[in-house]
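Shipment paperwork, digital attachment
Item: protein structure file
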Amino acid sequence: MRLAMFPLFLGVLLLAGCGDATPPPQAKAPPFVRTVAVAAAGDTAFGLSGTVRARVESPLAFQVGGRIARRAVDAGQHVAAEQVLFELDTRDLEQAVRATEADLAAAEAALATASADLVRNRQLQQRNYTSEQALQRFELAQREARTRRDAAAARLTQARNALGYGRLQAPAAGVLIDVVGEAGQVVGAGQQVALLAQAGEREIEVHFPAGATPPAEGEATLADGASLPLALRETAGAVERQGRTLRARYTVRGAQDALVLGAVVRARFRSAAAAEGEFVLPLGALNERGEGPRVWRVKEGTVSPVPVTLLATDGDTVRVRGALAADDRVVSLGTHLLVDNMAVRELPR
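Attachment content:
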């Protein structure tokens, strides 16, 4: 009886094992992406942020090292020309002046002695009591004493100048943008302790993307909606390493009373006629993963990266140059999720 039931029990186990089998995996459908057609760039306007700067900004530092004894100003303070900003502890500088004064007095005494010896020996030589060679030695001693006197006088002048350098004065009227020196701090010669924005002309500093050419003219839009014309004054000679941007300075034409140092304003420029290979895309289409800016072109249901050069940006759009063609379709949203040759499905337009 037991042997007869064994085949039945084995069949039940086989049926149970078949019921627990994992179904074969199903292929994942390609994700949907939103795309946009590439448009050729034309003669358009674009905007960038600009910072209000002084025409002349002077880093201030002591010409001698020492310990700051007094700080007389604060950041944001208006100062007049020749106003004292900082003072050093000048005790060592005063002792240096006294030491060089003593050196000068000794050198002058030595020169007086050498001159007297020379006069006396000239008289003896005229009477043939000394030789010509002996007289030349006294002349040489006098010249040497005079040289030492001149050197001591020069050192005294330097010591007195150094004592004067113990007071840091404003080179011109203006506003102190930053003050970093503190009383009790020991500073070295040339170490910046303040930054002075000199009074007078104000400028707008704008950073353009690498590869872009700063336009010759533009306009700045202030917080109250007022516009001031801009004229290009200078362009940096090289692209900045950190931000890969090109710095440009624009002179502000007209009234400048509304410009506050350090304020951020909207600067608008009109780009020149677009060159071949320049396109306008939505900002979301631009993607950068440490390999430079690029966009993702959709072709036959797959995406591929296309390197581009960023020329300008204006709110929601960017102006780029790259190996694209008009009416190419690129992904406009979610580019950070894409990989090369990835299958995608375009959302309805």
